[in-house]
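Comment on this:
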Amino acid sequence: MGERRGTGTSFLQPGVKVIVVAAVIEVTAGAVLIISPSLFARLLLNGDLNAAGEAVGRIGGFGLLALGLASWPRSVPARGLLAYNVLAALLLIFLGVKGALVGILLWPAAALHFALAILLARVLVRV
């Protein structure tokens, strides 16, 4: 219904517009979290974040961005997962090299996200 042959998901299908609006909202919220987690926390919760809270906020922003990408009509969900894992790995590696925020799980988490990004990229090349 509402889908034409060869065009994939049609914007005429019921619910597709709602999905697009939701995806745009998630991407926008994710972008704000990535750019300024403290501003997001202040506007949403009227509170401040320390450096660790900023880093965790950015990881959350990556997750919202990935959710929006994966939810977009005609999108391959693995692209959202790839984006999340690449961004998370890069941020964690940056934090580790910088040396200010290095907990016991930072390097294993960075390695895990890096490995997942490689595996997801290999999957997407085959799709």
User: Anything to note?
Assistant: The CA atoms of residues 60 and 118 lie 21 Å apart.
